[in-house]
Amino acid sequence: MTEQTADPWPSAPGAPRIWRRFSPLERAGRLLLLVVLVAAVVMSIRHVEVIPEFLWDAPAQMHDLLTRMWPIDWAHYWEGVHQPLLETIHIATLGTIIAIVLAVPIGVLSANNIVRFKPWNLLARLILVASRSVNSLIWALLFVGIFGPGALAGTVAIAFRSIGFVGKLIGEALEECDVKPIEAIRSTGAPPFAVLLKAYWPQISPTFWSVALFRWDINIRESAVLGLVGAGGIGMALDTAMNLFQWDRVSLVLLSIFSIVLIAEVLVTQVRKRVI
Fold this sequence. Notes:
The chain has ten helices and two strands. By secondary structure, the chain is mainly alpha-helical. It has a two-stranded antiparallel ribbon with strand order 1-2. Helix 6 packs across helix 8, helix 7 packs across helix 8 and helix 8 runs antiparallel to helix 10 (247-275). The model is unreliable at 1-7 (pLDDT under 50).
């Protein structure tokens, strides 16, 4: 909160000071920031090439699209949506498990209070950054080219995308652990693995379960769209329906995605209450 400052030049000798919220330098800085923001918005609009005619026509196009999407083709669910929806859940679940198995050792290597060898720390952090910097759709395109279209490419893409997220948070949690119980167990001559299990794990276990559940929830959402690039799951059903202009089936797929994401959110919330 900015403190109010007194005007250093009163209007007349003996006149009361006028209190202002910001100093002249602060007001100039705020004005400069506003000018920069406006300039950035104007330049962005120019480079994006927004066509006003399309904006004015958008409500009519939206109404036409929603009209085509209703009524929903409920009969198509068991034939073309149920199996891809289950495949999406399997992709997210297996991808999350693989990511956790790979991310925990990398997270341990990135923690400089456990591994006191700087090159290993830097290598682990490089892996975590590389994983997070590539979007899941890009990973999916890469693995579709390697494994071909299907759920395997989607599973590996989800796993590689999740390694950076899980490993970074695990590594940070390890670095923030209280050193007192760690030193107490080390003083007994316990081996490194026993120190990790008895001193570090009790302190980071809430973080671990929270991160694992949260990442699974995120992966449910991300795996729902991987099918758009051929990586399996409900996204392939959505892509097929859109390419064939079957908008009543598109609405069914979108509603199914929304439902499974909502169920996953409720499930994660309830599990966290009982586990953490």
